[in-house]
Specification:
With 401 residues, the chain is α/β, with parallel strands linked by helices. The chain has ten helices and eleven strands. The structure holds 2-acetamido-2-deoxy-beta-D-glucopyranose (4 copies).
């Protein structure tokens, strides 16, 4: 069940009242949403089905003037229909456009809106004047309210060129309005899900299509030495389709690759411990960033989104496979050193697991992470093997190239 509630606190009364959107999901699935467009489309579509019209008119939420608008739509539709039949349209001139998006072949291409966005619109006025400014970048944080100060600090490092989207895993949303920026942000609240679960459900490439770069970040990142505009400038300059800020080397680190270098803007390759890298152009020596703070170009995200598995919610192993999405990966994946962050490693969602048979909640979560890693790797390997087999190519080591 999904509840869409864009109208709060008398939005119709006051034009500068911040619009916001809550998507509350109880059992798990909210598919998609579009702010502000639902009323007009329902009106026009349903006008052809009088019984629906009645129930629509009776719906108390639709507000005043619905009847008049319906009449107008009804007349317009009628006269369009009349004009159509008066011209010599017959069976063979029915619309079928194979190049339309799948499922939309019966529509004239001019009406097909295949992509969307996360821009907030007004409920009044001329639609073409809703958006004096369109943000070019998107940043998402997966958050619990306990990290609000950290997120507040992080958001301030992102300019007005960024759309801010928060995924709430603890159900607390309204309280964020203490922060001015929160009233313009998109809030999506679904209980106890992971960053990659949200990303798969709510960041479909066609939904986030207007954004040139997409940040999909954890909540426990220290951003004192980070500026998002400058970061964007650097990834453009160095041609990075998939990137992350360097990590403060004073904190415990797993990988050499993501450790910040003090003497440069960006690095794309590294040395690892002896024996760790079979190939200097392959992970973990190159073509690799971690999953805590990745940044994707629009094109790279279109590919990565398709690789995210619906059931493998922790994303473990995804970091090692990102290189499948860009070519050549060792040139297009890299770490930005001069805009860097601190991974604070706050246990958060990990602690929201289910305690079982005397084990701490995080233990079960950690076990699932490892398990998912294995599952992801074997799925990817099997998929590649199946592909090459179907092409008649023998390749036992394809995933290593
Ligand atoms: C119907 O066609 C007439 C003439 O062909 C045109 O003047 C009129 O604007 C059309 N009506 C609509 C609703 O398109
Ligand atoms: C349908 O219209 C086309 C031209 O628009 C014509 O060539 C064709 O014969 C028509 N078919 C029928 C069944 O009227
Ligand atoms: C937003 O982007 C524009 C165009 O790239 C740039 O000129 C402007 O400085 C950016 N805004 C901020 C606050 O950096
Ligand atoms: C691995 O791949 C390379 C080139 O892609 C090929 O030359 C080599 O023979 C392969 N090795 C095995 C064991 O299949």
């Amino acid at each position: 069940m999904a509840k869409l509630n864009p109208i709060r606190g008398g939005l119709l009364r006051k034009s500068n009242e911040g619009m916001r959107l809550f998507v509350m999901t109880i059992i798990g699935m909210v598919l998609g949403f579009l702010v502000g467009s639902s009323f007009p489309s329902v009106r026009i579509t349903k006008v052809q089905f009088p019984s629906s019209v009645i129930s629509y008119v009776e719906d108390k939420n639709t507000g005043v003037a619905t009847q008049a608008l319906l009449n107008h739509a009804w007349t317009t539709t009628k006269s369009l229909e009349r004009n159509k039949s008066s011209t010599n349209l017959n069976e063979t001139s029915k619309i079928y456009v194979p190049t339309n998006p799948r499922g939309a072949e019966l529509l004239p291409p001019g009406i097909v809106a295949a992509e969307s966005d996360l821009y907030l619109r007004r409920l009044w006025g001329n639609p073409s004047e809703d958006l004096p400014f369109k943000q070019k970048y998107l940043v998402t944080f997966t958050v619990g309210y306990a990290q609000k100060e950290n997120i507040n600090a992080a958001v301030k490092k992102f300019s007005g060129n960024f759309t801010i989207l928060l995924f709430h895993y603890d159900g607390i949303t309204t309280e964020w309005d203490d922060f001015e920026w929160s009233r313009q942000a998109i809030h999506i609240s679904v209980s106890k899900q992971t960053k990659w679960w949200y990303a798969k459900r709510f960041l479909h490439p066609d939904i986030v299509a207007p954004y040139e770069y997409i940040f999909i970040w954890d909540e426990d990142l220290g951003v004192e030495h980070f500026n998002a505009e400058e970061y964007i400038r650097l990834v453009k300059k160095h041609g990075l389709d998939i990137s992350q800020p360097g990590l403060d080397p004073d904190r415990g680190l797993t990988w050499q690759m993501t450790k910040r270098r003090g003497d440069r803007e960006v690095h794309k390759v590294t040395e690892e411990r002896p024996g760790w890298c079979s190939d200097p152009h392959l992970p973990p020596c190159a073509a690799f960033v971690e999953i805590m703070a990745p940044v994707f170009s629009r094109e790279a995200w279109r590919c990565v989104w398709h690789m995210i598995q619906n059931d493998l919610v922790h994303g473990w192993g995804l970091d090692l496979a990102l290189r499948k999405c860009v070519e050549p990966a060792h040139e297009k994946i890299g770490v930005v050193d001069s805009q860097w962050i601190v991974h604070q490693a706050v246990p958060s969602l990990g602690n929201q697991g289910q305690p079982t048979s005397g084990r701490a909640p995080w233990e079960g979560v950690r076990e699932r992470c490892r398990n998912e890693w294995g599952l992801f790797q074997s799925r990817l390997q099997e998929a590649e093997n199946a592909y090459f087999k179907s092409k008649g190519i023998k390749s036992s080591n394809s995933t290593h190239k």
